[in-house]
């Protein structure tokens, strides 16, 4: 989508300003290091007028009110630069990105794998009979519903109608639906029923209704990215996620809400609500997928994560969220936020459901060059005997109330009980220390990638249409990215490389580690690309509390195994809100 470009100041005005800016730069270059440091520490060194002079160099023309609005983030970023400059980076350390020439490709549609035709498993239905009312299946797992479909105890059409009706009934309270794809869903359900009757059963997702975060393209369907400037956006192709789920026989019932441009739970129509307490938000940015899955409005959902956007809403809404290894699932046809960080993952009501969706989505597609051809060998194992499970003692104990990445002491018993589950199952609990590198600073500077993605949105002025006008909203973040120097971005990527090495060293002593979803490791492992799973683990003040398991790169099977062991020993994942 393109926007009318906001007119820049005249070349004459720019040339008048340039000598002053260059002179200031020369003076700074000639200043001794100690004096430069002293100047940098002055709290008022960055002003709206200063940003006005700086923006001429990059050909930008933000009005003074927008510069003033973005200025606090620019100041914080300057502090992040200083933090990163104090990290000793060996000269041989490369940035955490690389260039790879594009591979040959043809056509517009994603490359899809041909799934084997599986004979209809009629014997599965002998053990699972049709419920008295189809609504009784609303909160059931895919692994419970699939055998009923395969054995023709129920049809995809009646299941789809049930979920569509629930979406219509509860969305006015939860605001989790952007676009209801009712006609498409019913067409796909009829086709699924026809194939199943004919003995062409595609597998456990065949005929299962699902929802997808509204960052993913679905041909001919609105894809709004949760933001008013893109409210009428339609693509003429399917994302790889939508294409692969279609190949698996799943039924797309809804495009689910994302916080605008993948931040938080506020989007252009409303704030997505938590079904456990509709007075509160669902967290984000995969707010709609988490809310709809928890409320029994879809069989499963698919979200994305860059810095916690699956982990946080899954924990908040009391469902299972899986963030696979970076490069496990293609992002083709999905909105980019940060090229070197974005990941795709399932949000479900059980770990086995998440594993089924991961199995359907992973692997090369011929479009996303970051996807690696790494085998995924998932098993049904649930034992954890002998597994080394790490934990950070200070995080389990809690660091006090409130604040980002701070865990409430009231939740301590939840995590102590989770550790007891694993001890009793024969796992070995190992205390660990997270890498001592400034992950928050790295992450903040890497927001330059989002600035590049939404360059035209900022320059056109259409950014002012975003709903969140708060100091840390997406609009101010994107304005502030325009003042992140390339040198600081590349340094952040080099420190990130060091973080990857240190995190891999940590995993030499453990097979996985557990933590609260508020852990500092959320940011760290998003930067390093490690996979994670969030599970319902208890309740505090009648609200769900999640447990996060983080594993080695490409080792989702061990995460699934450990998560399945926890689910086998507890019943938290079987609880659901009363709507």
Radius of gyration: 25 Å
Number of strands: 13
Helical amount among residues, as a percent range?
25-40%
Instruction: Tally the helices.
Output: 21
Structural class: alpha/beta
Highest-level CATH class of the largest domain? Alpha Beta
- CATH architectural category of the largest domain: Alpha-Beta Complex
Count of structural domains:
2
What would you call the quaternary organization?
Answer: single chain
pLDDT < 50 stretches: 4-40, 106-112, 114-126, 400-405
Taking the alpha carbons of the first and last residues, their distance comes to 39 Å
The strand order across the widest sheet is: 1-3-2-6-8-7-12-13-11-9-10
Summarize the structure.
The protein is 40% helix and 12% strand. It is α/β, with parallel strands linked by helices and 579 residues long.
How does this model look, in words?
With 579 residues, this protein is of the alpha/beta class. The protein has 2 domains: 11-100 and 436-499, no CATH class; 117-372, Amidase signature (AS) domain (Amidase signature (AS) enzymes, Alpha-Beta Complex), CATH 3.90.1300.10. It has helices at 11-30, 33-40, 48-57, 64-85, 124-127, 142-150, 156-174, 182-197, 240-247, 287-294, 311-317, 351-361, 393-397, 412-424, 439-445, 448-453, 455-460, 474-481, 486-506, 521-528, 556-569, and strands spanning 177-180, 209-213, 251-256, 273-274, 277-281, 300-305, 320-323, 343-348, 388-391, 428-431, 512-515, 532-540, 543-551. An 11-stranded mixed sheet has the order 1-3-2-6-8-7-12-13-11-9-10, sandwiched between helices. A two-stranded antiparallel ribbon has the order 4-5. α3 (48-57) packs across α4 (64-85) and α15 (439-445) runs antiparallel to α19 (486-506). The longest helix has 22 residues, at 64-85. The chain is globular.
């Amino acid at each position: 989508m393109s926007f009318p470009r906001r007119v820049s100041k005249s070349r004459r005005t720019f040339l008048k300003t340039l000598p002053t800016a260059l002179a200031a730069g020369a003076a700074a270059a000639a200043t001794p290091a100690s004096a430069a440091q002293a100047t940098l520490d002055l709290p008022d060194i960055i002003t709206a007028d200063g940003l006005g002079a700086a923006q001429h160099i990059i050909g930008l023309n933000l009005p003074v009110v927008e510069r003033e609005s973005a200025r606090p983030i620019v100041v914080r970023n300057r502090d992040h630069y200083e933090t990163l400059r104090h990290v000793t980076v060996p000269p041989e350390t490369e940035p955490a990105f690389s260039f790879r020439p594009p591979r040959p490709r043809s056509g517009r549609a994603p490359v899809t794998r041909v799934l084997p035709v599986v004979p209809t498993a009629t014997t599965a239905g002998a053990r699972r009979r049709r419920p008295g009312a189809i609504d009784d299946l609303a909160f059931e797992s895919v692994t419970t519903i699939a055998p009923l479909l395969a054995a023709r105890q129920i049809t995809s059409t009646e299941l789809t109608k049930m979920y569509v009706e629930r979406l219509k009934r509860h969305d006015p309270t939860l605001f989790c639906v952007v676009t209801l794809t009712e006609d498409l869903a019913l067409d796909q359900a009829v086709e699924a029923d026809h194939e199943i009757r004919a003995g062409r059963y595609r597998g456990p997702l065949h005929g299962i209704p699902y929802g997808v975060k509204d960052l993913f393209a679905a041909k001919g369907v609105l894809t709004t990215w949760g933001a008013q400037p893109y409210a009428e956006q339609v693509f003429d192709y399917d994302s790889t996620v939508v294409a692969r789920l279609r190949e698996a026989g799943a039924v797309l019932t809804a495009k689910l809400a994302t916080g605008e441009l993948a931040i938080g739970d506020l989007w252009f129509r409303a704030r997505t609500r938590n079904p456990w307490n509709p007075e509160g938000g669902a967290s984000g940015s995969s707010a709609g997928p988490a809310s709809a899955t928890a409320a029994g409005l879809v069989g499963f959902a698919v979200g994305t994560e860059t810095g916690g956007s699956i982990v946080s809403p899954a924990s908040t809404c009391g469902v299972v969220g899986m963030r696979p290894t970076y490069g496990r699932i293609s992002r083709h046809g999905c909105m980019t936020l940060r090229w070197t960080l974005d990941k795709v993952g399932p949000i479900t009501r059980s770990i086995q459901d998440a594993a089924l969706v991961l199995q359907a989505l992973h692997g090369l597609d011929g479009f996303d060059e970051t996807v690696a051809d790494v085998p995924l060998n998932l098993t049904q194992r649930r034992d954890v005997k002998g597994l080394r499970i790490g934990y950070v003692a200070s995080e389990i104990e809690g660091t006090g109330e409130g604040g980002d990445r701070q865990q409430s002491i009231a939740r301590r018993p939840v995590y102590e009980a989770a550790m007891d589950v694993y001890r009793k199952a024969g796992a070995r609990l190992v205390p660990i220390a997270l890498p001592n590198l400034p992950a928050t600073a790295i992450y903040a500077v890497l927001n330059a990638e989002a600035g590049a993605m939404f360059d035209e949105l900022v320059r056109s002025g259409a950014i002012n249409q975003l709903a969140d006008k708060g100091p840390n909203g997406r609009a101010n973040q994107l304005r502030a990215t325009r003042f992140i120097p390339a040198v600081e971005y590349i340094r952040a990527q080099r420190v990130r490389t060091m973080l990857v090495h240190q995190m891999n060293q940590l995993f030499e002593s453990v097979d996985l580690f557990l933590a609260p979803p508020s852990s500092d490791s959320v940011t760290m492992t998003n930067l390093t690309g490690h996979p994670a799973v969030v599970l319902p683990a208890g309740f505090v003040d009648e609200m769900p509390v999640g447990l996060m398991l983080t594993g080695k790169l490409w080792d989702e099977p061990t995460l699934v195994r450990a998560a399945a062991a926890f689910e086998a020993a507890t019943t938290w994942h079987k609880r659901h809100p009363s709507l």
